[in-house]
Structure prediction request, 229 residues.
Amino acid sequence: AQSVTQLGSHVSVSEGALVLLRCNYSSSVPPYLFWYVQYPNQGLQLLLKYTTGATLVKGINGFEAEFKKSETSFHLTKPSAHMSDAAEYFCAVSSFLGRLYFGRGTQLTVWP
Amino acid sequence: EAGVTQFPSHSVIEKGQTVTLRCDPISGHDNLYWYRRVMGKEIKFLLHFVKESKQDESGMPNNRFLAERTGGTYSTLKVQPAELEDSGVYFCASSQVARTGGSDTQYFGPGTRLTVL
Prediction:
């Protein structure tokens, strides 16, 4: 069975600081991993995904994530936070049929 | 290209009433998913359609929930009768047929916030 744990329901950083959002997963099959972002009053938007191949995945808005099988992790990073990055971020793993299993989400606050 | 749309955006009903949520997926997407987020909890899967057929409805909480996708286009999710614990945000997502299982991107709608009083 698949599951996702996101460490930290709230993360606060200063503008220009490194963003690190943690995600660990459990999967009985080779995982497909996703990061989604939700801005206020909007739907979830895909930031990036890992399916196969290169373990460092680059996404939109300067975000990237690295798949580490030995650590069962898929942490999301951005070198320099921007005020517009303030949102809620969700890590997810999919089943073979496509069903997504989500973590509880991490609310990112960016201070000026 | 229009994204996934959901209607209504908000619904406030009393316990025991009926509510119907609608989702219009991206045109041409065969896969349609429903998810729900109860306050403070993770987003949870409800069910998955492939065209008009239910592929997986293992996440449906109970028989008060009925989902349909007539003609393989839009979908409705009816809650009858609604209970307090049904409150939450209901998301719909769609994707094209995946070449390999589970890797396809799901595109989400903005959600319907349901409040049951």
